[in-house]
Amino acid sequence: MKRLDFLNREVSNVLLGTMPLFSGDLKEHFEHLDMAKELGVNFLDTAIGYGGAEVSIGKWMTARNNRKDIVVMTKGCHPSPEGKRVNAEALAEDLYKSLDRLETDYIDIYLLHRDDLELPVGPIVEALNEHFAAGRIKAFGGSNWTHQRIQEANDYAKAHGLEPFRASSPSYSLAEEAAEAWAPGTVTISGPNAEEARSWYGANQMPVFAYSSLARGFFSGMVTRERWEREKDHIMNPGILFSGNATKDQLTGRGETIDPICATAYCVETNFKRLDRVKILAEEKGCTIAQIALAFITNSKMNVFPISGVANRTELQSTLDATKIVLTEKEHDWLDLKSDHR
C-alpha cells in the first residue's frame, strides 16, 4: 500500500484497469472486481469512454456496499468525432454521467482524458475547481497531459488560490516508442526523448498512474525475436496493419499474433535489446519478463503506480508481486541501455 496525501488514505500499489469490463456479463465483472478486492486492490481506473465499465463498477459497489473502501479514478473530456472537448460544458456533461453510472455522489480522482493545446489552461482549472469545491471530485489531474501543461495549470492555480492538478496518467514503460502507440493526443514519458518529463515527475513526486506499462504486450512474455521474425511479414501487411482490428488479447500479448500497433511502435532493435536484458534479469531473479518490466517503472525515481488490465487472479497477483522487486540503479540503467555494466 502507498499513501496519497491529497486523499488522506492508503491505496494499493497497483490500479485495476477496467477496460476489460468494456462489455460482457455483469456476473463476470462482479467476480473480477471481487477477485481484485480479495487480493488487496482498492484502486480502480476507469473512464466514461470504457463502455459499460463504470456501470459495472457502480452496480458492484452498491451491491457490496463498499463505496467507502474503494478509490475510483475515472476520466472524461475525451475527444468526440466532432472535435476536442476540454471545456466546462463537456466536463460537466461527462462528470454527471460518470457519477450516475458509478452510483456515487463523488469521484476520488477525476482526470481529463486529453488536453487541448489550443486553449489556455485557466478556464478548465476554474471549472475543475468548481466541482472540487462542491465535493463532486476529491482530486483531479490529467491523462495524456504533458508535464509542461500540468505545470502551467498548477502555476495558474497557485496564482489564483485554487486547487492544483494532483496526478497524471501518461503511457510509461521500459520500451521507447518508434511510432505512435495509441492515438493522436496521447502522451508518453517512455524513452530517451522523455528524460525531461521523468526528471520533472521525479522532482515533484506527483503520482504517475502509468498505462501501457507492458508496452501493448511487448513485455508480456509472449513477444520474442523468433516470433517477430515468423510473423512480421504478415503483421506488417497494410491490410492487417491499418485495419484497426487488434483484439483485446493482442493488446495484452495473449493473442495468436502480435498486436499490429505493438509491431510498429515497439518491435525495433533497441527494444529487443531491452527485452534480451529483461530476460536475463528475470532468469537471475526467478521471476517473469512482465515482472521485471513492471519493476523497471516502479523502481524509477518517480512515484509510479502501474495500471494493470489483467485477465485473471494469477496475472494480478503477479503484478502485485512485481511491485516488491527491488532493482539497483545500475540494473535500472542497464535495462534501459544507458550502461553496459551492472
Second-tier CATH architecture: Alpha-Beta Barrel
Percent strand: 5-15%
Largest sheet: 8 strands, parallel
Question: Secondary-structure element order, as H and E?
Answer: EEEHEHEHEHEHEHEHHHHHHEHH
Compute the separation of the termini in Å.
29 Å
User: Based on helices, strands and strand pairing, what is the structural class?
Assistant: alpha/beta
| Number of helical stretches of at least 4 residues | 14
CATH topology: TIM Barrel
What is the helical fraction, as a range of percent?
A: 40-55%
Which overall shape is indicated by the principal axes computed on the Cα atoms? globular
Count of domain modules: 1
